[in-house]
Amino acid sequence: MTFNAQKTVYMIFTNKIDKTKRYPAIIFNGNVIEKVSNHMHLGITLNETLSWDNHINQLIKRTTGPLVDCQLICNKHDRLESIQRKAIIACTAACACTSHNKLLKDVGLEPLMLRRKCFRLFNFCKIVHDQAPQYLVTLCPSVGSTTTYNLRNANNISTIKNKLKECSKSFFPKQWKTGTC
């Protein structure tokens, strides 16, 4: 078995308040072993007092980072437009003062908001016309009225009343408001 001094550390577990106490250096095969106050072992972050604080903080950092990134991407359309604008300027070597619409026209793109709207409409039409997976088709309300009378709105999709404002921004309610395909 080989010994790697760069990967080997030691820690003294204690609850004593006096942490300024000096301990002699540990030497193994002529290498001085580094003393640490925190160490991750088998996925658990240990510290000198064996409290869970460092481990929990490490987990929070690891899990909230991607969530915050997703929130920035999902909630900040302007941020996405800004990132796209920088990428277009870098790819086309355009002047930074060029208008965003002209940049999009030059590269043959539409604004992200319009692309999202078209994508929603495309998927909604697939769901309405039974060209989507069945679990999505069953979520969509029926087209046509439930009455036997010949009405002007017979081919409209019935709307759902939302009690929460956030629910009205989700896929189906938002698409129902814009109309059928």
Any overview of this molecule?
The protein is mostly helical and 181 residues long. The chain has three domains: 9-66, no CATH class; 76-109, no CATH class; 113-181, no CATH class. Helices cover 42% and strands 10% of the residues. It has helices at residues 53-75, 77-92, 100-107, 112-128, 134-137, 171-178; strands at residues 9-10, 26-28, 31-35, 38-41, 44-47. The strands form two sheets. It has a three-stranded mixed β-sheet with strand order 1-3-2, with no helix packed on it. A two-stranded antiparallel sheet has the order 4-5.
SSE topology sketch:
Blueprint: E1 9-10, E2 26-28, E3 31-35, E4 38-41, E5 44-47, H1 53-75, H2 77-92, H3 100-107, H4 112-128, H5 134-137, H6 171-178
Parallel strand pairs: 1-3
Antiparallel strand pairs: 2-3, 4-5
Helix pairs in contact: 2-3
Structural class: mainly alpha
Helix amount: 40-55%
| Number of contiguous helices | 6
Strand order of the largest sheet: 1-3-2
Outline type: elongated
What is the rounded Rg?
30 Å
Let me know the average pLDDT.
76
In the predicted model, the low-confidence regions spanning at least 5 consecutive residues are: none
User: What is the makeup of the main sheet?
Assistant: 3 strands, mixed
β-strand amount: 5-15%
Number of domains: 3
Instruction: Give helix and strand order, one letter per element, not per position.
Output: EEEEEHHHHHH
Distance between the termini: 69 Å
Tell me the number of strands.
5
